[in-house]
Design a protein that fits this description.
Shape of chain A: elongated
Distance between the termini of chain A: 25 Å
Largest interface: A-B, 34 and 34 residues
Largest sheet of chain A: none
Structural class of chain A: mainly alpha
Number of helices of chain A: 11
Helix content of chain A: over 70%
Oligomer: homodimer
Strand content of chain A: under 5%
DNA sequence: CAAAGGCTATCGATCGATCGATCGAACGTC
DNA sequence: GACGTTCGATCGATCGATCGATAGCCTTTG
């Protein structure tokens, strides 16, 4: 078997949840996309909600691990922030469907299922917050409202998943670099525009996401 | 009657579509929220999809009208762009539910119903595009990829609807000003940080949205 | 003025379709 | 023959939508 049925179910769910939404996707849609009967689906998943929660967990854990690995050892806050931006943009451009599910369907989960997902997202956002706060404290960032700015930048970068197409005029590298530049400017970055380690981020994304970037 | 049933149906739909999504909102949920029977609902709307489309039309037309009014006569591209940012942020902070519906539920519409909605959104984005392009041409903006930057800024500003709370530490004015500053910086604005006409934008929002701002 | 007729707003009951989920049976492989 | 997969058939619940009926309120008519 080229890909296992289990993987097909997951891929089908990511695709359909991203395009039609969780409530807009029926069990039978899922089955058709995965080339299985609706009954067979339940051999590989619990409830439909379990499937959604599992997708969110793996996606967020992957992003969190990748971000920790990419920023490990990068001491300079400005460099750390640029690295986070590059990684975030690459991840959202490479896996827009998965990302859209994570970003848009969080609150269809029941409170019990939502809680650990939100905790993961918070842990990820804390990486951004500390990079920004450290930069402000060190004087390399000059920005009035760091917390609000963090939210603004995160939304800006996540938006990539909503419009980016690999067939567009911009290569992935240019896109990521451009966003790093936008973020640096918004933060009033005073340090030299030291390039984030783009190659390293590309390798991490390629490894974690299992794609060639 | 304080508010008409028709208005209650509309308000209920905006609230529930925003929080639970279009497909996550049942006719009976709508009826309960509007304090009507599910049968009576159909006295005030066509299908559920018609209701969604109507909400999107009025919301987008309002935003488009407000943006045109706010930027009329503001010749300087940098000033125009800051005005667009301020208005966009105010609108998204004042009516987050409506905005989330417009931003997130566009593609549950059938192609026929979606087409005019997308046309309205495109017309609105064209205001941003021309302000940015004019600024680049005039040399007041220095940015590598204007079209991508426009998308990035729009996503950033729209994100306000996903997290802003009037009970937060930031007043509406500060929020709008801060976003205008972020956008100016991202665009590499070289002109003096001339404040957008915040008061005028507030008045327009107060008038068009029928709220005190 | 009162009765008649029409119009707006509302509802309970119910339609066929689809929903998520489960069952027992059959398949192939070791 | 045991086990991992797959499926057709089907469950009760809920979906969006429609039905005929009713109650109140204008306007018209005698």
């Amino acid at each position: 078997m080229a890909v296992s049925s289990r993987e097909r179910v997951r891929a089908a769910a990511v695709k359909l949840f991203a395009t039609k939404g969780f409530h807009g996707t029926g069990i039978r849609d899922l089955a058709q996309e995965a080339e299985l009967s609706s009954a067979s689906l339940y051999h590989y998943m619990g409830t439909k909600e379990d499937l959604l929660a599992e997708i969110m967990h793996t996606a967020l854990n992957r992003l969190l691990d990748a971000a920790r690995e990419a920023t490990a050892g990068a001491g300079d806050p400005a460099h750390r922030l640029r690295t986070l931006v590059v990684l975030h943009v690459l991840a959202h451009a490479v896996g827009p469907a998965e990302t859209r599910v994570v970003d848009n369907e969080v609150d269809v989960l029941s409170p019990a299922a939502r809680e650990p997902v939100v905790a993961l997202r918070d842990a990820y956002e804390r990486l951004w917050a500390s990079a920004i706060d450290d930069g402000v404290a060190a004087g390399v960032f000059r920005v009035a409202h760091p917390a609000v700015t963090r939210l603004a930048l995160l939304e800006m970068c996540s938006g990539v998943a909503r419009w980016y197409s690999p067939r567009g005029p911009l290569a992935l590298d240019e896109l990521a670099e451009h966003y790093a530049e936008l973020a640096s400017r918004a933060l009033g970055c005073t340090s030299a525009p030291g390039v984030a380690d783009l190659r390293r981020c590309r390798e991490i994304v390629a490894k974690e996401w299992g794609v060639s970037v």
